[in-house]
TrEMBL record, chains A, B, C, D:
PANTHER family: BCDNA.GH03377 (PTHR43818). The keyword NAD applies. Residues 2-122 form the Gfo/Idh/MocA-like oxidoreductase N-terminal domain. The keyword Transport does not apply. It comes from the Bacteria. Keywords: NAD, Oxidoreductase. Pfam families: GFO_IDH_MocA (PF01408), GFO_IDH_MocA_C3 (PF22725). This is Gfo/Idh/MocA family oxidoreductase.
């Protein structure tokens, strides 16, 4: 399988790392050729390709879509370019991996879902946290009924790089370049986890957005921040679960804290991305000995772990992408479904837009369309 | 000072414990006579008085209000009886301590505030968590600017005694006896902490309530639950802080988890009542060495600690009531203000009612009147 | 039952607190009269007695031993005075509670054991940590085989008040006044816990002592420290358990960290006094879901908890003394044994002396005599 | 630089991973050719080489030592073969990386040290935990005096795969194949960390070994275990630090717990490999706000982190090998020293042997020769 990655910054590096390592950890999957790295700046993409292990480069993504030696197109561009590239790649019969978010609007997501349904190739949306072993284990345990029926959930994704009001302006704080603020950037991960762990969708949402620091120092003087610094929502699912969501870039002391907590009728689960090798399971039972159990998710019995190191050797953030690549390659070879699907991306985007709609309406409970 | 406590169940025991011990730990306060314990059942109140150290008993609270040897009337009845007793005691010139909540409605709270303002005696509302040393320290640190300007807060109070849908009906689940569900019972503590720690009030609230289990087994068959099992809100203060609030009785694995987190522009604070001797402080600064610092709040430099044991010896839940009694006695002696005031109780009740109003209006942002 | 406490500083206060509160929490035990507080300084003992709730005072401990209205003599003097007072009290037919350590030498301990065996009254040694609910639960779980056969144990008691080489000289750092250093002061608690939790004794020990700071500033200039700042030992029990012991007063950042860890063939237990309401239990089993479980030891099913507050309300350090007093009163009433016995004190002292002997012999494994 | 790795099981895979990824994260180092993977079984090494990214294979390690296209020989064989291969490679002028332990005896280590001193190539010993960012940061902080003068240390390395007495016999439990038991396997890492963090050596040791389960089920019936299951030691350094060491394979509930704690005169440091992205620093100071600070060692200001992902994205166990490879390549290019040196391996081995000697002598304090 020949692969091309479009983009070579943060996500391009993370995906390149996955393609470079997938065979070493998942020897059962089809061999991969790291064919082409794509970037607009020829000099820089050449250097990146050399460092990251790519055979060649291109400066126009259209080129790789036309080539026969490329089977998989992996889209790591900024979100507002996802749709155009992915639609073209699907139309050309390629297998397509799109880094999250699927796109910046429900309309674009719907177009991508339609294209994926009609396409010859497989489509995968890169919600990489689905391959955190602890979260994959959490989904298994929920499915097995280990915590009973989930009633309440509590999700947050907290960072702190904007705590200081003097932190400078960046492209991420302008609506035209970033699409949205923390809600789209981090909230999408949290909403997808809720859908993934529960196996059902959010149907109604009520929400609030806030820009705590409305102006920040820019390169040419003070500039207006046009996206949200933090957002809060109450989410309701089909089956009646109520989930709270809180996302922030001003949560001082939290570096990358995607936290998930599910409360069921006979147990609960808790996760924090800052300790991604751990899952906390409580099972109601003997009152004398029950309590939160911190499972170190590094045993061969745990999802994905057989592929990696002996028991007790912890994984890092980037290993999730390698496992994601393996799942994709296996699905392609077996011609079987693979998640996250583009539908999953659409479902998440609908929730985010419902939160924005609710905020505009003073917090009113709003249908998501899921 | 002669004291009478009205009520001898959970809160009556906790307050009796405080009066019995206050002189031993706070020898500077005026000596206290544990004069009368009041309860309707003469036999049981006699037994309780003997166990708890009271000199005598009464079966009608009106009796102690009339007596000259009673200086302090401490109201530990159910919430719907607070107003009547406290108003009578204030009118009789007694010093009055009312266990939280001040009352079950804004209207009653307003009457109590007015009465306290006009009264000769001191009035104290028993939000006992204000005397958790870690929370008192948190307030000091906020006031000193150690975490900068607070922008975002995150509060929860989570218990799990209703997780199981088969957990039986109790008086706490009937609106007529309990006034409200978890929102009033636990939410009031959380809202008061927000007011206390920030030194300002919630002016707007948006909220949702939910009864996950609408019917429960009662002594005479299935019965309808008429209060909330869980509640969520977004709260806005005068200065622009946004706080999330989540309270629940179905949060499996959480026993008594009042959690508070304040995010400021240069630091943050975190607290969990299940580890009440600890406060977690993060101070932004040298990126190489900063992070959450777990302060063991058991040093003589910490609030209230000089009165207790040597450094490193942890306190429990009930010590908060003893410190509260000491503060009350000291305020009476010095004729000085003491918090929580009845105004604090009114302010909290207004927030709770605004959350209920917002819920009824589909989540719409609602003014609290504070 | 009339009680006298000898001593009114730290331990005298802690024991007075227990006598003052025992009836309120353990109404089944015989009523107690807080008869006499004994101290050499008449003025100060008068004040202490008033604060702590004692009916009267005495300045000579011999006086209370002769009085008929005193049934229980509670010895809270410095350790080197324990033997004389306790022997006299036992001889006079009193029930005797001795605060740990039983005495400062094996020889004195043996005399006390003999006297207790011959006495009419009950004798109790105040190893109060046996009444920490989490440790009492640990003992139950070991006895029930929940962790299989214990093979390895790990104990420490770490404090940090001597970390700074400029911390001043005190009576605790002079052999003549303190008997020994940290080994006797803190090591005795840890050794007793090992005996208590396992239900067997240490038979051999190998150890090392160290005084990190040999001189400290005293009131009249530099003074030589004549006791240990830290100690280490390897302890072997009858059944073949090997336990490590580490005690220190220079463990910067540890305030009062008595930690215990027991490793069994099918599980383990972990405890830290700084979080005394928690016990961590691991049970080997399903590799997917096993791990350390943090039990919040605040349920009515847990030892001592029914006497206190509703589930989830944490206890503090001083509650252990109240529960100890209740057990003592109950044992006296029922004429039944109560632990810790004076034999327990002797067994612990033998281990401490074997560690000192081993240290003097370059670390050689030494029989304890147990 | 052409590289050959000798061995393709656990360590061979971990080192191959490092060579495959080093350029992607450390683009400043010389490009590496993954030339030859060496293993005795031709079929299996072919498959491993294909999966792991090697250009070719060999079945005799002597072959790669003679080849001109191999610059670096990376020895991942079992420990008893290290010396022969490494001596030959050094003699042939290769740069040599030896996985820990350097060798199974002090005598072999001394020969390797001598050979390295005389060699043209660079020699590196693979104590990979020196490249855990949190431990590298700990060393920096000690060096900067952030915790004052270290007085006491506490090290352990605890696993639990032998807790169950029915766990089967393996080559690791036979002296002839494994050299030693847990002391050599895990103790070596802990001793090296002590040397590394303090920058000085252990000069005296006192120790105890224990085989808790003397016989285990083997493939041909019950077999005698000839190595230790657990070991304990007290270690003394040049400057007077006393360190305790405890290593075990029966520590139920601990999976891969290398823990390090350093207590200094003005602070302390704590680390646990199971949470390898965290370092806990306590700095004595303002008693109101000091306590253990959990530093998330994932900021660009932290050692090695600039090479990896943005702030807050955690690393795993295997990343340490990649950073180690980068440091080695950089040292080769600059012709500069690189640690761990073979002297470091000798120093650690001397401590392990002194512990065994002490054990044989009943625990007597023993000189290490360092």
């Amino acid at each position: 399988m020949g692969v091309a990655v479009i983009g070579y910054s943060f996500m391009g590096r993370a995906h390149s790392n996955a393609w470079r390592n997938v065979a070493a950890f998942y020897p059962d999957v089809a061999p991969v050729r790291m064919q082409t790295l794509v970037g607009r700046d020829g000099t820089r993409v050449e250097q990146a390709a050399a460092d990251l292990g790519w055979a060649g480069v291109a400066t126009d993504w259209r080129e790789v879509i036309e080539r026969d030696d490329i089977d998989i197109v992996d889209v790591c561009t900024p979100g507002h370019l996802h749709a155009e590239v992915a639609l073209a790649a699907l139309a050309a019969g390629k297998h397509v991996l799109v880094e999250k978010p699927l796109a910046n609007s429900v309309a674009e997501c719907e177009a991508l879902v339609a294209a994926a349904a009609a396409a010859r190739g497989r489509a995968l949306l890169g919600f990489n946290y689905r391959r955190v072993p602890a979260l994959a284990l959490a989904r298994e345990l929920v499915g097995e009924g280990r915590i009973g029926t989930v009633q309440q959930a509590r999700l947050s994704y907290l960072q702190d790089w904007l705590s200081d009001p003097q932190a400078p302006m960046t492209w991420r704080l302008r609506r035209e370049s970033a699409g949205s603020g923390v809600l789209g950037d981090l909230g999408s991960h949290a909403v997808d986890q809720l859908h993934y762990l529960l196996g059902e969708h959010v149907t109604h949402a009520s929400g609030t957005l806030r820009t705590f620091v409305p102006e920040r120092p820019g390169p040419h003087g003070t500039e207006t921040v046009t996206v949200d610094d933090a957002a809060w929502a109450t989410l309701h699912t089909d089956s009646g679960v109520v989930a709270s969501l809180e996302v922030s870039r001003v949560a001082t002391g939290r570096k990358n804290a995607l936290t998930v907590e599910l409360f069921g009728t006979s147990g609960s689960l808790r996760f924090d991305l800052e300790r991604l090798n751990e899952l906390v399971l409580t099972q109601a039972g003997d009152a004398r000995t029950s309590g939160p159990t911190t499972i170190m998710v590094t045993e061969p019995e745990h999802p994905y772990l057989k592929a990696w190191w002996p028991a007790g050797h912890v994984l890092g953030w980037d290993h999730t992408f390698t496992s994601q690549a393996a799942d994709f390659l296996r699905a392609i070879a077996a011609d079987e479904p693979v998640h996250a699907t583009f539908e999953d991306g659409l479902a998440a985007q609908r929730v985010l837009e419902a939160i924005e709609t609710s905020h505009a309406a003073g917090g009113l409970l709003t249908e998501t369309g899921n």
